[in-house]
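Repro:
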Amino acid sequence: MSDMKEPFLNAVPLLEKIEKAGYEAYFVGGSVRDLLIGREISDVDIASSATPVELKAIFSKTIDVGIEHGTIVILFNGMAYEVTTFRSESEYEDFRRPAGVEFIRSLQDDLMRRDFTMNAIAMDKQGKLIDPFRGTQAIKERMIRTVGDPFERFREDGLRMMRAIRFHSQLGFEIEDKTLDALKALAPLLKHISVERKTMEFEKLLAGTYRKDAIIKLTETDIYQFLPGLADLKSEITHMAEYDCGDLSVEEMWALLLFQCKWQQKELDAFLKAWKLPVKKIQYIKSLLAWLKIRFAKNWTKSALYQAGFMIAAGAERLFNILHHQEANLNLEHLQKSYESLPIKKLTDLEINGGDLQEWFQKKPGPWIKEKLKAAEAAVINQEIENKKEILREWLSRCNQN
């Protein structure tokens, strides 16, 4: 029996409604695991013996999300719940997806197809646990162990190997010996897994509390060799694990890894694109890296702080500190005060614009406008002049005569 709390309690009436219609329904998977560990739970997963068609007959508001895999979203009491029909999976194709999915009525058989014992626990509406594979025991032992033979589980879906290391990173649980042996033996199966799925797991790993240990596990198991662009970077990855990464963000972790590589821009671009990261994220990581290199050359000036912006400057400073084996947030308060004291934060904060310049100088638009605005911007940032329209006009007129 487990002490049930929100968001489970909210969903109990949904389970009751499915049961009232003559079917079984349970809480399953990560939410049950996190309840037992004592982690925060954002949403709950529900498994039921009812098929999607049968569930649609019970609930008026549903959304088809992965109906071919037996999953639908039920809108109930103002909340959205993912409900998946008990299922068994036939032979797996290409080490990543089942050739077919068969809906079944047995909870035990549904739990049997899951990856790790800690994820194969169900809980009924009273909080009673159904745990045929001793997942609760694994949680007590802080152990990552597959349901059944790890070699079979990983051959079914190679991504489960990355999930094992990702859970190691998030939870700090050890990977059981036989499961670890299977990881080492079957790492090449990751060749069959899409980059997008690998990236999602890798970024969760980079964000984990125990990421330092997980990064070492990537090299010990040879899994790193089957991740985009990492095959030749064993020493860089190992070196990365020497730093106390504190509360670095995922983007900062990427930058930390890339900093070890000392690559040219071209190699850097190719590496980030290989992971199929969003363009915005790639630009952010490259920006962090560029400012980190500048930070190694000199202290922050008003001009550098203004150009970088506080987010990037703070990230680069955190990385700089960590690379010097110092507390990540050292000097950050001072940096923030310096940034806040800047007279302007962006060009549009200037009290003048291109229209003003045309009027004052009676000239046609051209590159000269940008030049003068940039000159005024620099003078204001460096507090040579005040950001006041008349003062700026007088200053620009003087500059014009010189």
